[in-house]
Amino acid sequence: MSLSEIIYKRKSIRKYSHDFLDEKTLQNIQNHFTKIKPLYGDINVKFNITSKANMNGMNSLFSPHYIVAMSENKKGHLVNVGFMLQQMDLYLSSIGIGGCWLGMAHPKETPNNDDNFEFVIAFGFGKPDESLYREIDEFNRKSLDKISNISDSRLEVVRLAPTAMNLQHYYFITEGSNIIHAYCKKPGLLTLKQLAKMREIDIGIALAHLYIANNERFKFFETPAPVEVKGHFYVGSIEI
């Protein structure tokens, strides 16, 4: 099954087998990060695989293995991590391994040589102890008209992307035949810091789906915000 097909089947796995993946599989997963496309080529990112023994926080004991995402703190780094790590999420699903984004989990410690990097997000993974895939009618998502200005069928892959609590705090505007502008909902005064952070990661996840579905034509760029979207800030534009 291709990664584009996985988009229509993927689900967050919360039940895992107690069996650990073998070292060869874990090394192949680590090596796959070299094949993942970044959204911003000038932001250094590190993805480290660790075990639940090195994790703390809510939902940190779901799975036997974890990816810890570390990044330089630059403009767009949260979107970039979401974009990159979602490509790994789809890849894992394609080889029979389940995964789940964990916004409230964090590592107990990080390598000493990561002073220029900050922890961004954790992602749990392992052998699933439940169905790895779902049918399209099992997705709990907003309709396209709630997240975009027109019913652009190319945005269906964005609609199906996972987000924190399925809130889908983004909006897309289609311009002409090949340009789509992406916006993220601004956090309110009472929005928790972690949830505000997740909104930018989530839009990176959504853009990863758009890239996977249009990888030969996908081009991300930034321009002065073409239009104002109430309550949202401009993230960037995509040519497909």
What features would you describe in this structure?
- With 240 residues, the chain is an alpha+beta fold.
- Helices cover 26% and strands 24% of the residues.
- It has helices at 3-7, 23-32, 77-94, 144-147, 156-159, 193-213; strands at residues 45-51, 55-57, 65-71, 98-102, 105-107, 118-126, 170-175, 179-185, 219-221, 232-239.
- The protein has a 4-stranded antiparallel β-sheet with strand order 1-3-6-4, covered by helices on one side.
- β7 and β8 (179-185) form a beta hairpin.
- α3 packs across α6.
- The two termini are 23 Å apart.
List its traits.
240 residues; alpha+beta; 4-stranded antiparallel beta sheet
The helix-and-strand class reads: alpha+beta
Percent in strands:
15-25%
Shape: globular
**How far apart are the first and last residues' alpha carbons, in Å?**
23 Å
Q: Determine Rg (CA atoms, Å).
A: 17 Å
Q: How many strands, what sense, and barrel or not for the largest sheet?
A: 4 strands, antiparallel
Taken in chain order, the helices and strands follow as HHEEEHEEEHHEEHEE
- Contiguous runs where pLDDT drops below 50 for at least 5 residues: none
Total of DSSP H or I helical runs spanning 4+ residues: 6
Number of strands: 10
The helix content, as a percent range, equals 25-40%
Enumerate the strands of the largest sheet in spatial order, edge to edge or round the barrel. 1-3-6-4
Question: How much is the average pLDDT?
Answer: 93
